[in-house]
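Q: Focus on the shape:
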Amino acid sequence: MSPRLVFLAASALWLAMSCLGVGAGRLAEDKQALIDFLAAIPLRRGLNWSPSTAVCGRWTGVTCSIDGSRVVAVRLPEIGFGGPIPPNTLSRLSALQNLSLNSNNLTGPFPADFANLTTLTGLHLHLNSFSGPLPSDFSPWKSLTSLDLSFNDFNGEIPASISGLTQLTALNLSSNSKDEIFVSGKGRRRDRSPEKAVAGSQDANNRLVFFEGCTFAFDLEDLLRASAEVLGKGTFGTAYKAVLEDATTVVVKRLKEVGVGKREFEQQMEMVGMVKHENVVELRAYYYSKDEKLVVYDHYSRGSVSSMLHGKRGQERTPLDWETRLKIALGAARGVAHIHVENNGKLVHGNIKSSNVFLNDQHYGCVSDLGLPSLINPMLPPLSRTAGYRAPEVVDTRKASQPSDVYSFGVLMLELLTGKSPIQITGGGGGGGGDEVVHLVRWVHSVLREEWTAEVFDVELLRYPNIEEEMVEMLQIAMNCVARTPVRRPKMPEVVGMIEGVRRFDSGNRSSTEAISESSTPTPVQDAAAQTTPQRG
């Protein structure tokens, strides 16, 4: 080997060893910065951070670069931190890209030395108790794509320098000081909307729009990166369960066949976003572009009422008991009744069905998918999937009404009572070999005509004692709701009152019944003969 080649080989080896040494040294510095941070901050829960263990792959909440040379992310939500962030600790993590310390009890001003964290792309400090003004200069964080400082006690104006964060796709500064604050961007003052907080500047295109009170901090890229599970394909699109990097779980519905433009879409979303009720699944965010329309909701871990009623029945399945079915009906009724009094009494759900009803923590029903039918392309044929819920007078599901909502709710009640789907396909029999379509409402009418009322109810309910009278009362309410003539159907606040008359539950939620007209409220329980005779229109 020539002296020149020997020299080049030796130089390459020396350079490689030097790089390894520098990388190891920087990682050691990052590790010490984290140790110093932990030693100086109050903490209710223990962390497995120890000087004797490797920081990469071992320490809770810490992520290193692919080559293991630097700490690039610290995610410690709800860990129990308190007090101010110790100075000269986290700010020494010069390669840090993501810092998530949300949902702790951190106090004090925004850390001034965070200006050293120039590689940050995500900063999530929401749900803490930080106070004082925001930093006047956001230019050190020019790589930020996601910033969430909501639910703190920051005050004053939002600095104009935020408008220089050209990479920003998710911004949430809501729910801070009660003092008036405004977004100052692109050289002009812009009052902050009381109803929504926009991810990014207000006039930005094709960004997620978050509504007031939403604590999420993510962007479209986060959603696309999230692990996703298909929950179901419904009338208006496919719903996914998305779990983000910080363990936030949401439901994302990808809408199909949207037939309205951006302006009309946004107007409808803003109207829906203003509906706040504990029995209405809240719209948290939406996204509109030419090729993609998304809506984001909270995730309900128990799944839909449809899956509970019509999922596989066997030893591993827990049947819905009678009390839960009552609470599902009552909660959903309250939710729909509240919807009907919104927007001066002009709002309609338009797609009430068991797959759009979920259980909250108290096992009351909550209705989802509000306002979506009006977005669908009017050139499409009527949707067959909703046929079992569709009132007789409704030809086009995009033109639903409050009376047709009542009809759909009545079908939902019949589902809860019978355990049967609104439409069932059975073998035709008789040697013809064809299938027979059985509509639930027609089937219940036929059974009641033969005075076989007991045959209506789900066999899974027969195990519960002393509920026969309540079941018959609920059946009578359901049959009132599915009256063929719209004018013979009760209004939803009246339905709430009737269900509450079946059994009183301990619940502070009575807001949906305030609009009930006492003069028009029908008697919920008729005599025994009337209970087995459905009202017909």
